[in-house]
Write a structure and sequence with these properties.
Elements lengths: L2 E6 L5 H13 L3 E6 L5 E3 L5 E3 L2 E2 L10 E4 L5 H7 L1 H13 L2 E5 L3 H6 L7 E2 L13 E2 L4 E4 L2 E4 L5 H13 L1 H10 L9
Parallel strand pairs: 1-2, 1-6, 2-5, 6-7, 7-11, 8-9
Antiparallel strand pairs: 3-4, 10-11
Helix pairs in contact: 1-5, 5-6
């Protein structure tokens, strides 16, 4: 079974995170909500409070097939500043494991140089932080092992794209049908 770690920080965009997580969990993907804050209670950018499953220091990031970075402000800044998360992302990238980021969070990958030579998307206004990238306004794009999404309006599409990559197009289509979602990036 596939395992996804979704990294949480106060100020994240709640729906960007939870919509993608919901889609994945509906299909049996093990998704662990991992707080980088040292506490399990997370307050999103819209003051929605929810609980992480685990703390960063208590997980082995090598166990994840996908590292997922939700966007939102100042959540993205908190994720970017976490040294342990940065090291986990670099290691996962070197190993070819999947990395996903939505909204402002692709700027983290851009600052790390992981998007150079790739096609990627992000929330409008963060394009300049994607150095060396072929920027697209496409809602969700996968280039190699990295998937980026433009923003909250594409959170379900991101979940479906990750599901397609992990379990195949037919399973993504089944989940789209189950949630009554007629569009998406699932092929």
């Amino acid at each position: 079974m596939s395992k996804v770690f979704a990294f949480l920080a106060d100020g994240l965009e709640e729906v960007e995170c939870l919509a993608a997580v919901d889609v994945l969990r509906r299909s049996g993907v093990e998704v662990v909500l991992v707080s980088i804050t040292g506490k399990k209670e997370i307050t999103g950018s819209h003051k929605i409070v929810f609980m992480a499953d685990a703390l960063f220091e208590d997980v082995d990031t090598d166990e994840a097939d996908v590292l997922f970075l939700p966007g939102g402000m100042p959540g993205t800044k908190h994720l970017k500043a976490h040294q342990g998360l940065a090291e986990a992302i670099v290691k996962a990238n070197k190993q070819g494991r999947r990395i996903a980021a939505i909204c402002a969070a692709p700027s983290i990958l851009g600052a790390m140089g992981l998007l150079k030579g790739k096609t990627a998307t992000c929330y409008p206004g963060f394009e300049e932080e994607l150095e060396g990238v072929s920027y697209t306004r496409q809602g969700v794009v996968t280039d190699g092992n990295i998937t980026t999404a433009r923003g909250l309006g594409f959170a379900l599409d991101l979940g479906l794209e990750l599901l397609r990559l992990l379990q195949g197009a037919q399973q993504a289509e089944r989940v789209m049908e189950a949630i009554q979602y007629p569009r998406g990036t699932a092929r």
